[in-house]
Amino acid sequence: MARRPLPRILRSGSASITRSREIARTAADSATDVLHPLFTVSRGLRRLAAAGRARWAATPKERRGPTLFLAAAGVLVVALLPYGPLLALISLMAAAAWKGRERPVERTGPDEAETARLRALYEALVPYFSVPDDPSPLFSHGGEWSGAFSDFAFDADGRPTRLRIAYPAYFPDGDPASRARIEHVLHAKCGRGREYLFDWDEEGNRLVMCVLPALPVSVAAQRFVTVPGETVLGFTDADAVQRTVPVRDGEATRDAPAVVWRTGPRATEPHLLVVGQPGAGVSTLLRSIALQALLHGGDVLVLEGCGSGEYACLSGRDGVLGVECGPVGALNALEWAVRATERRLAVAHEARQAGRPAPTELRRPLWILLDRLGVLGDLAAAEGRPDPQELLQVPLRHGRAAYVTVVVGEQFDTVDVLGASVRAHTRAHVTLGAATPEQLTDVLGAPPHTTPPPQVPPGRGYVRLGTGPVLRLQVPATPDPYDDEAPEPHRRAVLDLLAVHPTEPPEPAPPRDSPLPAGEPALPA
């Protein structure tokens, strides 16, 4: 049987129907936009009426009569005032519009994916935060995670960026190994490739985990706003230190949280030990310290064990006493430094005995920078000469009173050759580059509270001044200006600082009857 054709309205009217629907939808949207103020005012009037009814219902019966009387009196006063009804109507419409405005919907909790991640994290912590004898465990398989987790936040990918964890009081939070296990689990479950900070509150049985932003690496060497005796080792997190210094970061100027190391007679950490991996930035930090010492009018003596020429840019500059690379020149320079330290110490002692302040020439600090001290010791032993560490004991022991500061740079694989005297007197410690937790603890004396960064740029590490906390550190970019592979702006910044004269030029020598000699003896040729 042949098919009968569809009616014409069904065969050719689909396009017109679709067009009619679009026209109707456009008209509805336009009407909604035009009538939106009316909808807002109507919604506000309903909310005001509902609030008035709720207020009237909450008013005691004995107070309803006086309330009605006061309301009627107010209406009468408004009616008798010039333009009173109009102003009252305008005020009512404004209140209704404010009350009926659409507020953005605020999230009151995690979504489904975030809840699943928190539940998985809770289950992963159960074996570490629970014991079989606990009658009311805070962590249990299949338990409620909301009782243990609070103050949580997530990034765009749904990974936790902040989390506060309540743990039972019997957990051994004073044991570093127990802490390390919890931190490892959190690091693995919350997402690798980020740097986490763990803040343990042993008194309140709380652990706060948060994701740290990467430290900026764009700050180059420059004249920092410090006084003599203060050296900027680098920059850290904003909430880790209380002091900021203005820095030039590219074309902009901002305040950056700085790690300031203080030296001199009143310093508690007069000497510094820098340990790092090859290429991690040990020479960069020593160059930065040398430039800051020269800008403050100090004398700098550089002793390099590896002979790579990293400090050739300092040769012949004002205030640089010498740059020695070989074992013979380094030992001769150290012997001179020992005599200079003893002479400075004697002059300072005589000034104190006479009740006078230290002479100006004595207060001109002497900086001894040693890069790869272990290599210098090996070279000296091969030539049958004394160990440089034995000569270094006098500047280390008496350097604080004699205005002598020692900075030792070494690598992790040779840090064991440093003697007990060097390790004991260098109370300020810096580690640069990738390192294991055991290596960091051995150098710093305490483990850091953060996980290792996913990528370690040059000059990135940790610092600890004395018995203070372990802080993240990013050394200002201070490359060798003669290195063609270094960025041109950073090289130019170092050359500009080398061309700057010191801020405090030395004063004229004291008269002949003064107990201080006119100057230090010259370095041996």
What descriptors fit this protein?
525 residues; alpha/beta; Rossmann fold; 2 domains; eight-stranded mixed β-sheet; 38% helix
Give me the CATH superfamily of the largest domain: P-loop containing nucleotide triphosphate hydrolases
Distance between the termini: 120 Å
Q: What is Rg? A: 36 Å
Category from helices, strands and their pairing: alpha/beta
Mean pLDDT: 85
Strand content: 15-25%
Low-confidence stretches: 505-519
Tally of strands:
15
Listing every helix as H and every strand as E from the N terminus to the C terminus, the arrangement reads HHHHHHEEHEEEEEEHEEHEHHHEHEHEEH
What does this structure look like?
- This is FtsK domain-containing protein.
- Keywords: Membrane, Transmembrane, Transmembrane helix.
- Residues 497-525 are annotated as: Disordered.
- With 525 residues, the chain is of the alpha/beta class.
- The protein has helices at residues 8-12, 14-34, 36-58, 64-80, 84-99, 112-125, 176-190, 282-295, 327-353, 373-382, 388-391, 393-398, 420-425, 437-444, 488-498, and strands spanning 149-154, 160-166, 195-201, 206-212, 230-235, 244-249, 252-262, 272-276, 299-304, 320-324, 366-371, 404-411, 428-432, 460-465, 471-474.
- An eight-stranded mixed beta sheet has the order 10-9-11-12-8-13-14-15, with helices on both faces. Strands 1-2-4-3 form a four-stranded antiparallel beta sheet, covered by helices on one side.
- A hairpin with a 5-residue loop joins strand 1 (149-154) and strand 2.
- The longest helix has 27 residues, at 327-353.
